[in-house]
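User: Second chain of the day. Same drill as before.
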Amino acid sequence: MNSLNTEAFTLFGQHILWSDMTGNILGLIGLALGWRRSLWSWPVQFVSGLVLFAAFYGHLTGSAGKQAVVMVVALYGFWQWNRGRGGAGDGHISPRFASWRERAALVGAAAIGTVAVALLFTAFPELSWDPWPDAYIFVGTVVAMYAQAKGMVEFWFAWLLVDLVGVPLNFANGYAFSGFVYVIYGALVLWGMRDWWLRSRKSPRPVLEGAPA
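Assistant: Same format as last time:
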């Protein structure tokens, strides 16, 4: 797996590794498939995590551990979408808005998770390059993937909040390639958000027992 950490090319003075390029491109494809509500979104996200896990394992333990969590969430998402296929009548899941209780749970999990992970990264500096923003991006990604697994439109908002930190942070730290990838992520997020929003309004609502159809 050492070949994953060899240089693919140089961009704006930044040395782009095969692992970084492959993982980011697969991540973009996975997000695009998520917009299309394709079940293949999850295998692609899993492979993206697997590539980055293989690249990090052995010398960047914290980064490898984060990718392991991403792979577990991808497996959960595949299971959820496989169960919910056909809900929209077109063979795919039916997008929906989260309830206020679910939104509060997502925000609470993101806030508590970010603090907990940041404190862990602070206590063990070898696990992270910058504890607080790294924890925010990592926890935000996991929360977004969980919301995506549940078919919630809010998952796009979670991705957008991750991008708002990820884009300037990557450019500021000289990671131009990753920064450009996050810009593309942002465009996909806005497009996907609009599509899921409109589809959620067209989704059939369940009729309560005893109520007129």
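Residues 176-202 form the longest helix (27 residues).

User: Great, on to the next one.
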